[in-house]
């Protein structure tokens, strides 16, 4: 009988602690600009587990938030021309290269960088910066810039609702949002 009473008391105590813990838990609403990751090669994590032909590490990865157009005019209004933009929303976009790369004519060592942009009509300046884990462009420090390069911007084939960054089959980073499309050419060093 004592054994049964002890078990009942233990169960009641566990229920009370679980209830108290759940009362402290605050469930948040889904983010309006969800976090996303794009790999080169495309779908790298799945390839790694499904096949034995996937490389042991990807060549590149970009982590970014995906704001929505929501009927707004993005470029020139939401994203101001000639003002620093974090390429997305929330935390600064980060790109990681798992081997050295060439962007334009400049070499960039393997590693992780924050990505920023100075947009202008028809051309963007893409900035690779060593300042990591920052919110937006608020703590941007120009002295930590590693590389700046200009890329052309063209009209997209269709309006893109969610800000999108994806690597094409050659490993170039394609950036799409609203009616704009830009491509950052990337050449990867051999192993």
From TrEMBL:
Record's signal peptide: 1-23
Domain of life: Bacteria
Keywords: Signal
Pfam families: DUF2911
InterPro entries membership: DUF2911
UniProt name for this protein: DUF2911 domain-containing protein
């Amino acid at each position: 009988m004592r054994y049964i009473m002890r078990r009942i008391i233990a169960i009641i105590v566990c229920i009370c602690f679980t209830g108290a813990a759940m009362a402290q838990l605050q469930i948040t609403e889904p983010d309006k600009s969800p976090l996303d990751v794009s790999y080169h090669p495309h779908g790298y994590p799945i390839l790694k587990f499904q096949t034995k032909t996937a490389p042991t590490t990807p060549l590149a990865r970009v982590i970014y938030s995906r704001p929505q157009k929501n009927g707004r005019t993005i470029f020139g209004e939401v994203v101001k021309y000639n003002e620093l933009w974090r390429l997305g929303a929330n935390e600064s976009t980060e790109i990681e290269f798992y081997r050295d790369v060439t962007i334009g004519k400049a070499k960039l060592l393997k590693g992780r960088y924050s990505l920023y942009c100075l947009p202008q009509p028809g051309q963007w300046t893409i900035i690779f910066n060593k300042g990591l884990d920052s919110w937006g462009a608020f703590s941007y420090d120009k002295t930590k810039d590693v590389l700046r390069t200009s890329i052309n911007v063209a009209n997209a084939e269709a309006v893109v609702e969610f800000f999108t960054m994806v690597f094409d089959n050659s490993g170039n980073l394609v950036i799409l949002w609203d009616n704009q499309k830009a491509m950052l050419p990337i050449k990867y060093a051999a192993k």
